[in-house]
TrEMBL record:
Annotated InterPro entries: TraQ_bacteroidetes (IPR024355), TraQ_sf (IPR038707)
Highest taxon, organism lineage: Bacteria
Pfam families (alphabetical): TraQ_transposon
Name assigned to this protein: DUF based on B. Theta Gene description
Residue ranges of the TM segments: 12-31
Region (Disordered): 144-166
Compositional bias annotation for Basic and acidic residues: 154-166
Keywords: Membrane, Transmembrane, Transmembrane helix
Length: 166
C-alpha cells in the first residue's frame, strides 16, 4: 500500500508541475502578444534634379526639374518645400505658379515638380531649397549661379540629405 501511495503522490506531483508549467507558458504567450502593429511611417527620401545652367543673366529664368524619391510609401506622409536665398537677388516659383517667400513652407503636391529661378540682380546667386516631410526628415539642395554677363567659375549644385529626427 505504501508503494501505491508513493506512486499516486509522484503522479500528483508530476501533474502539479505540468499544470504549473502550462499556466506559466500560457501567461508568457499572452504577455508577449501586442495588439499594436508596428507600421513604418517614416521613410528616408532624396530629391534628384536634372542638370542646370551654371550662369544666369539679370531677368533670365532657369528651370530646375526635380523628383522626390522615397524609399517607401506611407499614405499619411506630407512633404513641404521652402527656400532661402543667402546671396544675390532673385525669385523662385513653383510650376503651379506659386512664388515662394523666403523660409515660408509650401505643400508639395507632386513627387515630380519644377522650380523656376528668375535672376533679379547682376551678382552671384546662392540659395538653398529644403524639402521636409511631416515626420522630421529633410533633404537640402544648394544652388549657386554666376552672372552670365561677368564673373567666372562654374555653378555648384550640391545635395545634403538629412534624415530622421534632428
Amino acid at each position: 500500500m505504501n508503494i501505491q501511495n508513493d506512486n499516486r503522490r509522484k503522479r500528483t506531483d508530476v501533474l502539479h508541475v505540468m499544470a504549473a508549467l502550462l499556466v506559466a507558458a500560457t501567461a508568457f504567450i499572452f504577455a508577449s502578444c501586442d495588439d499594436d502593429m508596428d507600421i513604418q511611417q517614416s521613410y528616408p527620401f532624396t530629391v534628384e534634379t536634372m542638370p542646370v545652367p551654371n550662369k544666369v543673366a539679370k531677368g533670365e529664368t532657369v528651370e530646375i526639374r526635380c523628383e522626390l524619391k522615397a524609399e517607401g510609401r506611407y499614405s499619411g506622409t506630407l512633404y513641404t518645400i521652402r527656400y532661402f536665398q543667402f546671396e544675390g537677388q532673385g525669385s523662385l516659383k513653383m510650376d503651379n505658379g506659386i512664388t515662394f517667400l523666403p523660409n515660408d513652407r509650401y505643400l508639395l503636391e507632386n513627387e515630380k515638380f519644377r522650380l523656376y529661378y528668375t535672376s533679379e540682380g547682376e551678382d552671384r546667386h546662392d540659395f538653398i531649397v529644403v524639402i521636409e516631410d511631416n515626420i522630421g526628415n529633410s533633404h537640402e539642395l544648394t544652388f549657386n549661379f554666376n552672372n552670365s554677363d561677368g564673373g567666372s567659375g562654374d555653378t555648384e549644385h550640391t545635395e545634403d540629405a538629412e534624415g530622421g529626427g534632428k
